[in-house]
Amino acid sequence: MDAILDRLRAANAEFQSRFPGESEKRQPVHTVYGGAHLFKSTTAARIGEIALRSLRDYAPDAGTFAGALGLSGPASLHEEVYRRVEAKLRREAVEDFRIDFEDGFGSRPDAEEDEAARTAATETAKGMKAGTLPPFIGIRVKSLSEENKRRSLRTLERFVTALVEQAGGRLPENFVATLPKITHEGQVAAFVEALELLEKRLSLPAGALKMEFMIETPQSLFGAGGEIALPGYLAVAKGRCVAAHFGTYDFTASVNITAEHQTMDHPSCDFARHIMKVALAGTPIWLSDGATNVMPVGPHKGKELTERQKRENVEAVHRAWKLNADHVRHSLRHAYYQGWDLHPAQLPVRYGALYSFFLEGLDAASARLRNFIEKAAQATLVGDVFDDAATGQGLLNYFLRALNCGAIAEAEIAATGLTLEEIQTRSFMKILDGRKGR
């Protein structure tokens, strides 16, 4: 049997290396993107100001906010959600920002894009020094299609070089380069090679430049032979990939869905999300959903508005907020805890939908996890087989995600009967092992 066990040990080790589990790092709950030509070192703060003003203008109280988003539960829950959303917008409205050279920038002359890359890098370096950048930041270049490949890598090189030179040889914390519209493995391999060359030339540590996949085409999901493509992308990324983002509108367009029906909750999008979820399960890759493209903006502009015009503005914003909230909750039900936001006025919805999603069931989940841990620990202690670890892990995941997005505070963990350190093990079985040892 020793030979069998040795081979099994090697096979198990290989499996563990390929599927080490979820990342223990903080995942941003959203990515806000904006054209590179508009980016400033103070952009995140400015977005936060606009987001907070939109909350106060269109939902000055918890009841109005809850009604606009269609939140359920008692008034006390709505008050708590509103309080936490308002505090989040003041403290850290933008968690992740993508300086965009693709859809948000468009096709421009080379000289103009070169200048935008240099200017955006200068503003990023300025934000590093001033401490005004969001916790996560990066750039999105154009695709590596035959038409765009040279422009894409040229922008990558111009931006990263200028940034490192102006920032004293450093990169911002959690910096990432996003590769859009991937259609085959060779594009990922080429992008990784470009990142390696930049690291060597700029004397950056190996692996410092991280990347993200954007899944926006059928070929992003399936290879030419019908195999799921994502594991191959991950292999050629050589440990550099940190996330995979779903592109709702490019994907639906690529499978011939008409514009009227290109929505976040279209069944074809759920199909793609599930493929991504299953293909990348057990890896540290974060998954992110797309964006709601209906902007919460009133039809009437100016200061001298009639009462009817003001009312129509509120109604338009509330309709867009409700749609956005429904999309965020749809993503959450499918275990996508990150998404894209396109407008500052979408940020109150992002946090409102997130916080209500977790807070609605907080008391029940706390009691259930506490009872579950006690029974499981007792069964383990007396030598019984406890065969429902998956349920325990599911409950634990609820609290891990709620903590990550800021829906609950560390102090609220106490109601589960667990310590913060136990929660942070991220493993139900490790918690049981630790308690058995005690």
TrEMBL record:
The keyword Transferase applies. Gene3D superfamilies: Phosphoenolpyruvate-binding domains. GO terms for biological process: oxaloacetate metabolic process. GO terms for molecular function: kinase activity; magnesium ion binding. Keywords: Kinase, Magnesium, Metal-binding, Pyruvate, Transferase. Coiled coil: none annotated. It comes from the Bacteria. Its cofactor is Mg(2+). InterPro entries: DUF6986, Pyrv/PenolPyrv_kinase-like_dom, Pyrv_kinase-like_dom_sf. Pfam families: DUF6986. This is Phosphoenolpyruvate kinase.
